[in-house]
Amino acid sequence: MSTPDADLDDVDRRLLRRLGEDGRASYARIGVEVNLSATAVKRRIDRLRARGVVRGFTVVLDPRLLGWSTEAFVEVYCRERTSPEEILASLRKFPEVAAAWTVTGDADALVHLRASDTRHLEDVIERIRREPGIQRSRSSVVLSRLIG
Amino acid sequence: MSTPDADLDDVDRRLLRRLGEDGRASYARIGVEVNLSATAVKRRIDRLRARGVVRGFTVVLDPRLLGWSTEAFVEVYCRERTSPEEILASLRKFPEVAAAWTVTGDADALVHLRASDTRHLEDVIERIRREPGIQRSRSSVVLSRLIG
DNA sequence: AATGAAACTTGACTTGC
DNA sequence: GCAAGTCAAGTTTCATT
């Protein structure tokens, strides 16, 4: 088990902040901003990746412009011995997955989906159910957003 | 208020899915997977960015290592004839409610809670349960955030 | 920390629908 | 005109020293 903030030094933090702003920034450019050579920046990021602090990189989409206004929460039940990493690997494939958590209780994971309409939603849920390691699911379609 | 998938074609969608998996994937590599030249891929991404569909790129960090608070999802079951407005009025009182939705299915609402620790979480859930109009609840504590 | 080869990015120009 | 392809110059990545 890792302790919060592990051994991130100040350079790591500045570097991660920069990557948070632009996940595609080149190592060279980041290096200029944190006073490090591009090579040193790459080594640090590789190390953060290996330590699990950095899980990966992704694109930030505007859900409204995608027209995906139909939402649902899906409780996912996995087969025995399905690790969170495997669940993540399965869910990553779907751009409709807006968020996902592993949880305590009956289900193993809770998935927040965004789709264009109920047809699209149904389709995604079908495809998620067919992922290896995933046994069944239980869905709740969002009627309205109250808070948040 | 229907915003159908704007003018995203199938190539755009595959391209965005790929970027979702790896926001630092090179244009060349994406191109191989969607059968386009690297230049064409870049032009599409630039266009999606200009249209606001793509907001940017970011690094995905492990929340455990960043000192995030304890979270839970609570399904709330109401008494008959409890309106969404009444549910909202009840939930509004709690600053621990990060988000809330009315949903289809067994439960009436789904509530996303953020607390400092499990003790705090327990306390909030207790207080929500005592709200008039709310009958019972079913909680899942978040173990880890996978996506989002 | 520096080098160099391979890969990537990016703009200008060309082709084809 | 619009979107894709080709080419070439300039950068960046990455293994090695």
Could you walk me through the main structural features you see in this protein, from its secondary elements to its overall organization?
The structure is a homodimer of 148-residue chains. Chain A has helices at residues 10-21, 27-34, 38-51, 84-92, 118-129; strands at 54-61, 70-78, 97-103, 109-115, 134-147. The first copy, chain A, has 148 residues and is α+β, with helices and mostly antiparallel strands. In chain A, helix 1 (10-21) packs across helix 2 (27-34) and helix 2 crosses helix 3 (38-51). Chain A is elongated, with a radius of gyration of 19 Å. The model of chain A has no long low-confidence stretch (mean pLDDT 92). At the A-B interface, helix 1, strand 1, helix 4, strand 3 and strand 4 of A face helix 1, strand 1, helix 4, strand 3 and strand 4 of B. Chain B binds a DNA duplex (17 and 17 nucleotides) through residues 26-29, 36-40, 42-44.
In short:
The structure is a homodimer of 148-residue chains. Chain A is of the alpha+beta class.
